[in-house]
Amino acid sequence: MKKDLRWFLKDTVRKTVDFSKTQQNLGFPPPPVQKPRPEGSVVIPLPSPDDGKTVLDVSVADALRRRQSHRKYAVTPLALEELSFLLWATQGVRGASDPVRSYRTAPSAGCRHPFETYLAVFRVETLEKGIYRYLPFEHSLLPLGCPPELEARTSRAALNQPFAGKSAVTFIWTALPERTEWRYAEASVKVIAVDAGHVCQNLYIACEAVRAGTCAIAAYDQELADALVGVDGEDEFVLYMAPVGKV
Ligand SMILES: Cc1cc2nc3c(=O)[nH]c(=O)nc-3n(C[C@H](O)[C@H](O)[C@H](O)COP(=O)(O)O)c2cc1C
Question: Residue 218 C-alpha to ligand 1 middle, in angstroms?
């Protein structure tokens, strides 16, 4: 086995970066903290993530004890309030934000948050089946239409792992590396991957509070996954997926 790709896991690259020449230190404005949406697009506002009715008061200790990967889901749909909570728990905005810093429920190196969250929705009350993008700063969903055979396409995008198309909703996270590169240049690659782990762990833990389960998916077909959510595969590409359903 070749070992030369292991550089990716190390931080030796940091010693080679001239941080005085990063875009941030050269005075360039940061990329937007949320991918802009088309002018005049209609969004679906999400209910408050802490309405106190649907989200169970599970202790952190119990959530950690019960956390496990689930690959079989009940046919029961997810309530919109429950989806709202899961989106807030994974990428929701907490407190004050500005173009440089957007504090969220998950940590991120340099506060750069280089992700967008797409959803393949199959069974969520009041939502039509289809692809959506979460708008954390508006706590809303942007509908992106419904490609034919969405269940089959989602499973194929997950390298034929069928449970990805049998969920109530499958989370599909894309990376937009420029957000982190603006601050860290070539030292960005590893921290983007590390950041993604935090987001998905938040999803695992949050699922415990809505009687749902999830399973991280990092084995997927890059081109099919990028096409599913309509991203260019260069400046934005799929990095991680996680089907969610009632258990
Ligand atoms: C980075 C990462 C990638 C994973 N990719 C997959 C995957 O593609 N398919 C799958 O069925 N499970 C996947 N898993 C789930 C692991 O198989 C699972 O976490 C592991 O078996 C331990 O089980 P537990 O989560 O129930 O503790 C992944 C987990 C992680 C953290």
Answer: 8
